[in-house]
């Protein structure tokens, strides 16, 4: 029975990986998608996603020294590696069974399609990494794997198709409407935040008490480690945003400059607010502001000017400074509040800020509008939050079934 369950999990990995890959190609596709060097940047951007995982791991350690960081990385690595291997097998099997559609795949697989496949797969690991902080520590590795597969294979997979298309002539409905999310402010970061919110709401009072005990960030964690995490994420975010310039009239230097400008704007805003309100600005708050600025600029990247990037980051810093304290009135878990503001709300703000983009950088797209951007944000919230509630209710039900509560004896 254990072997059958393991094989079923492996099959789920393969299926979830297949959903993230492009399914067709033609000469027109390649010309429309720009030139090969851009796709090399896309592949390198995927590698920067893995570098981001190192930064997030250090931050996760600050919240809970006893967290399942090893298990989380093990799950992500296995899903990526095994998914790569089994996807190739499933691809040839599909072509063998449906020979009339061989021209849609092309054998051998085109290099630019592999770039998209690897990039989207690695982006899915970012979502599961952020969501991991809401997962109960008493669940098994297999249970968490099922959760990660559902998040990456269903929730993220559908959103990535709707917003970014498949890298060929087939595009998602949000993309066709004109919705733009340059590098995942909504598709990745806000999605992860809404899933975390659903988990916090569903898993019950006992799990929330456990989460509250995990909030040890910066109290006894080494300052050097947090500084290292900040620099790693700064570097990785710049490389990640560069990876998204494929098929867009955007220069690499614009992406890097705007990333630095947004981060700087967020930090400067927090410092200025601290001076005006006569509050002591901790290193913790500066790091959070920097992360908020990075998430916000992810939505528009090199599509805005440097001055716009500065105030986009500044608004993100303002949100971090004010909203984190305000949300603590309703959500007592500190790390959950951080996720909702930094990844969720700053991601929404960065996506809405696309309306200030330079129109010359928008290729073959309708006029971008605040209404369209808001619709994309709303669809993302309803889709990710709704499915996550169902997912975590199943997790909670299974946990109660396998570990029934013990009645206190009087």
From TrEMBL:
Membrane topology of this protein: Multi-pass membrane protein
Chief localization: membrane
Keyword Membrane: yes
Record flagged with keyword Transmembrane: yes
Signal peptide: 1-21
InterPro entries: Ammonium/urea_transptr (IPR029020), NH4_transpt_AmtB-like_dom (IPR024041)
Family classification: Belongs to the ammonia transporter channel (TC 1.A.11.2) family.
Protein name: Amt family ammonium transporter
Organism of this sequence: Acinetobacter calcoaceticus
Lineage, highest ranks first: Bacteria, Pseudomonadati, Pseudomonadota, Gammaproteobacteria, Moraxellales
């Amino acid at each position: 029975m254990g072997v059958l369950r393991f094989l079923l999990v492996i099959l789920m990995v393969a299926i979830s990986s297949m959903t993230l890959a492009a399914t067709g190609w033609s000469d027109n596709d390649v010309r429309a998608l720009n030139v090969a060097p851009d796709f090399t940047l896309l592949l390198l951007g995927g590698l920067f996603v893995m570098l981001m995982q190192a930064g997030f791991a250090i931050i996760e350690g600050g919240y809970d020294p006893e967290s399942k960081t090893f298990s989380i990385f093990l799950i992500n690595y296995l899903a990526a590696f095994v998914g790569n291997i089994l996807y190739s097998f499933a691809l040839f099997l599909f072509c063998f069974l449906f020979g009339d559609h061989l021209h849609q795949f092309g054998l051998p697989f085109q290099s630019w399609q592999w770039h998209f496949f690897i990039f989207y797969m690695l982006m899915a690991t970012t979502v599961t990494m952020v969501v991991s902080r809401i997962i109960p520590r008493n669940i098994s590795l297999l249970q968490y794997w099922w959760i990660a597969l559902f998040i990456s294979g269903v929730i993220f997979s559908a959103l990535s198709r709707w917003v970014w298309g498949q890298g060929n002539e087939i595009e998602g409905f949000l993309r066709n409407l004109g919705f733009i999310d340059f590098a995942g402010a909504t598709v990745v970061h806000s999605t992860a935040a809404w899933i975390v919110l659903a988990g916090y709401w569903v898993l019950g009072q006992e799990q929330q008490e456990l989460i509250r005990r995990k909030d040890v960030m910066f109290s006894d964690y080494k300052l050097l480690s947090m500084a290292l995490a900040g620099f790693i994420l700064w570097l990785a975010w710049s490389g990640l945003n560069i990876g998204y310039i494929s098929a867009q009239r955007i220069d690499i230097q614009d992406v890097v400059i705007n990333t630095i400008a947004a981060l700087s704007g967020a930090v400067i805003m927090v410092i200025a607010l601290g001076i005006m309100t006569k509050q002591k600005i901790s290193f913790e708050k500066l790091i959070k502001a920097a992360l908020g600025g990075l998430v916000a600029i992810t939505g528009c990247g090199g599509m805005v000017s440097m001055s716009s990037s500065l105030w986009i980051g500044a608004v993100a810093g303002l949100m971090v400074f004010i909203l984190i304290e305000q949300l603590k009135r309703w959500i007592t878990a500190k790390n959950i509040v951080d996720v909702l503001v930094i990844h969720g709300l700053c991601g929404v703000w960065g996506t809405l800020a696309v309306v200030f983009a330079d129109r010359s950088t928008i290729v073959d797209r309708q006029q971008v509008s605040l209404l369209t951007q808001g619709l994309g944000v709303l669809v993302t919230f309803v889709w990710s939050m709704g499915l996550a509630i169902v997912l975590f209710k199943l997790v909670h039900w299974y946990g109660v079934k396998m570990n029934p509560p013990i009645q206190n004896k009087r």
